[in-house]
Amino acid sequence: MYDLPGYLAMMHDPVRVPAYRSALEQSVRPGDVVLDLGSGSGILSFFALACSAAHVYAIDTNPLVDIVRQLAARHGLSRRLTVVEGDARVLDLPPADVIVSDLRGALPLYRDGIDVVDKIRRRCLKPGGRMLPLADDIFVAPVACPGAHALVAGWRARWADVDYATVTRQAAQTVQKHALRAEQLLAPGQVAFRLDYLAPARTLEGTLHIEFSRPGFWDGLGAWFEATLSPGVRFSTAPEGPPTVYCQAVLPLYETIAVQAGDRAVVRVRVYGVLEGPIWLWSVQLERAARLIAHEEHATPSGTPISAQDVKCRRPDYTPPAYQEAAVDREILNLVDGQRTTGEIARHMAACFPERFGRWEAALGRVGAVVSRYRRGAA
Prior knowledge:
This protein is of the alpha+beta class. 29% of the residues lie in helices and 32% in strands. The protein is built from twelve helices and 17 strands. The strands form four sheets. Strands 6, 9, 10, 12, 13 and 14 form a six-stranded antiparallel beta sheet that branches. It has a five-stranded parallel beta sheet with strand order 3-2-1-4-5, with helices on both faces. It has a four-stranded antiparallel beta sheet with strand order 11-15-16-17, with no helix packed on it. The longest helix has 16 residues, at 360-375.
């Protein structure tokens, strides 16, 4: 979740902001209803209002979205701008002429952002409505990025006579965010796949045949995107271009591999669960003079393994015990009836669970947390 410095960086991005403004000027028509998903600081919402939108809904799960409400009131825009804190997927939202979003991280496939956009598109976009963005092309290239690989190789050390080298296998299964430079590319980037926001596939994959253009020490795959916001309006986060708030991503290798100009590699990148939460798989195969030099395979689930207990909990025959914390939350939810105050609920909870809270003031924080969790799902 972004903080104020993060929002400030996005607002001052000299690549992102002009492109989104141009796309909104092209797409928003007088009288349109616009949904701004993940509105953050509200800059895209205010751009849409400046394009004569009749009404804009600024939606974000971040409580900082209240800044947008304050700004709208200060500038006399409250009648045309509705700010909603919550998960757009469970909110009661109106039909929209335009849906604009930027839920990306270093790459567009970030957490459940694609699922949010897709569910709102299918439910709210009017026939003939416009989506911003339309598509993102994901580029991949071999890179020499010692800073990224240090997060893998750094585990090859002994502490208190304990050898941590085996952790490198797990560390090399994570997608990292880095600011790459053009000179770190060992070959030109190629499009691995396209993310179509009008019809996102659940699995995206690409096979790249790479010829190294210069010698170097290959330690990862760099990845970035080129966004098509609207017809003719694009921007890129490529390392050769001006820096952006997104930076780039690095998919690390286990080892640093010395390569020569003219070496050839086959790189395969696949992403499962595009809507649910992306799972990345990548493999590389390096050849020189028709001889296999290196072969590696990676998958992000290996970087964040599921514990044996979590696997057990997912079995259909598992019988979970009666957890006290679950009983606490269940009791709070039973008391949320639209009539009791949080103070009244807290006093009840302290009386029912004296060993857990002791005083009602101690229960108030838990009540507030539970209420806030579900409040964000209400319009």
